[in-house]
Design a protein that fits this description.
Layout (H helix, E strand, L loop, with lengths): L5 E3 L10 E3 L6 H13 L4 H6 L6 H13 L7 E3 L18 H20 L3 E3 L5 H9 L3 E2 L17 H9 L5 H10 L3 H12 L2 H10 L6 E2 L19 H9 L3 E3 L4 E4 L1 H10 L5 H16 L4 H13 L3 H6 L8 H15 L2 H18 L4 H14 L5 H19 L5 H13 L5 H15 L4 H9 L4 H10 L23
Parallel strand pairs: 1-4, 1-5, 2-3, 3-4
Antiparallel strand pairs: 6-8, 7-8
């Protein structure tokens, strides 16, 4: 595993070689930086900085690579690197969290560069064309070719064991399976659906429960936080675990752990929820509490993710051993509830979560600063100079940090809209930003700047702008896409 970097589809990592399982999610780059530093980095200040929850992202990424460089060409296997791929934001991308998207894309590219230079092995169970292209550009050699049989057209290699088991066990006829997958719009999804239909209810439930886990977990009568001898939501049967292993749903990793391959987890999550939403959140909170006492890094990362998805703010804070930027999820839920119930106090609670992110975890999180201001503004029920200063400072911090990477018209539109509500004449600054937005992104993207500020503009200011930019009239009754509004609210 030393020497030239290589690609394989075989999860046969030697026990003495660190194996890092890559997963998707908004925190994919944070999670990967922690695991790389812990599993492949050398002990010292750089590694400590890379795993410190208070380290801002830029410093964290730099420290992770510094820690890795001190190890030289030490072997490492990166499993399912395609799962974390995110293309950089383009001119058509939503501006809302472009900084986060860019950071994820840049980090992934840097990981490929480093791995290619230091002879890592990339285990790809579900190759994506964009990643194949990126690896080809770095001349990473393929050690084993993907050779799909006639029965498995266009199916992710990680799912091939499911089809082989179905045919070998007499659960499906090879020709029928071939016709099914050949005619499907999404062959991966069709195969997972056919596989699930063949499972007994207990095994199907066990599979869906295990699909909630993102990390790899040791198996020794139990799997991670699940135990076959327990009652309730965390119960799995031994027979179900054994069947899932035999049929290939659980991938045995070389370091004595098992995991559900990325394409199977993805399809299971998309097909249907495990149980009712409230019950799923209860299960996630139970999983977080169970994993919380485990000092293993993967378990700690899993505990925090389950706490976030379980909606428990205090548990999420308690489990934030390495980072906590995904507290945004809980903050956004509070903001949704505030909007639906028309309760300004809930906006204040959402703002408090974003304030926690920038004060305790990442002072350079432009998104968190933006939505600190956004939610404080919506909690404002009467003039309040102290609150107004907090809102203005949050918006300014967000714009400054976001613009350090790439100009963000949406954030400036919200900031100028708030200034206009306070009675400031923003026409000069609005003209300046309008010219910059059009120059960088074209007229169509002017809506990201104008619409957040439009309702706050005095009639004479809007008329003045229309006189010089008559095409702005076409934006009068438009709305921004829901995804761009962060918390799903009107801008």
């Amino acid at each position: 595993m030393t020497g030239r970097a290589q690609i394989t589809d075989r999860v046969d990592v030697p026990p003495d070689v660190p194996a890092v399982l890559v997963r998707d999610g908004n925190d994919a780059h944070l999670r990967l930086s922690v695991l790389l530093a812990l599993h492949a980095g050398a002990p010292g200040e750089a590694r400590d900085e890379a795993v410190d929850p208070a380290t801002p992202w830029r410093a964290r990424a730099a420290a992770a690579f510094e820690s890795l460089r001190t190890r030289g060409n030490a072997p490492l296997a990166l499993i399912d690197p395609d799962a974390a791929y995110l293309s950089p934001p383009t001119g058509q991308a939503v501006f809302d969290d472009a900084t986060n998207q860019r950071e994820r894309a840049q980090f992934f590219s840097s990981v490929l560069d480093f791995g290619a230079e230091h002879g890592w092995t990339f285990v790809r169970s579900a190759p994506r064309p964009e990643v194949t292209e990126a690896m080809d550009a770095r001349r990473i050699a393929t050690a084993t070719e993907h050779v799909a049989s006639a029965e498995l057209p266009d199916v992710a290699p990680a799912l091939w064991p499911l089809a082989r088991w179905m045919v070998a066990e007499g659960r499906a006829e090879a020709n029928h399976l071939h016709r099914l997958l050949s005619s499907a719009d999404d062959p991966d999804d069709a195969l997972v659906a056919a596989y699930e239909d063949l499972l007994d209810p207990e095994t199907r439930t066990s599979l869906r429960r295990l699909a909630l886990l993102r990390e790899a977990h040791p198996i020794n009568g139990v799997i991670g936080p699940f135990g076959p001898g327990e009652d309730g939501l965390r119960r799995l049967s031994s027979a179900a675990i054994n069947l899932l292993r035999r049929s290939g749903a659980l991938t045995q990793l070389g370091n004595g752990t098992v995991a559900i391959a990325a394409p199977l987890r993805d399809r299971l999550a998309r097909r249907q929820a495990l149980v009712a939403r409230d019950e799923t959140q209860l299960l996630r909170s139970e999983l977080a509490r169970t994993l919380q006492s485990n000092r293993d890094p993967e378990a700690a990362l899993e505990a925090h993710r389950q706490a976030i998805l379980g909606g428990s703010l205090q548990l999420a804070l308690d489990t934030a051993r390495f980072y906590a930027s995904d507290l945004r999820v809980i903050a956004a839920q509070l903001s949704h509830r505030a909007h639906a119930a028309r309760r300004p106090a809930l906006y204040r609670e959402a703002a408090a979560v974003y304030a926690t992110i920038v004060s305790r975890f990442d002072a350079e999180d432009a998104y968190a600063w933006q939505y600190l201001g956004f939610n404080l503004e919506r909690s404002r029920t009467a003039p309040d100079e102290t609150l107004d200063r907090q809102i203005a400072d949050a918006y300014l911090s967000s714009c400054r940090l976001a613009d350090a990477d790439s100009y963000n018209p949406l954030y400036h539109g919200r900031r100028l809209g708030f200034d206009a509500r306070l009675g400031r004449d923003v026409r000069s600054e609005l003209r300046e930003h309008l010219a910059r937005t059009v120059a960088l992104h074209g007229r169509d993207h002017a809506r990201w700047l104008i619409l957040p500020a439009r309702k706050a503009l005095a009639a004479e200011i809007w008329a003045d702008l229309l006189a010089d930019y008559p095409w702005l009239a076409g934006l009068e009754h438009k709305r921004l896409p829901a995804r761009s509004q962060g918390d799903g609210l009107e801008v």
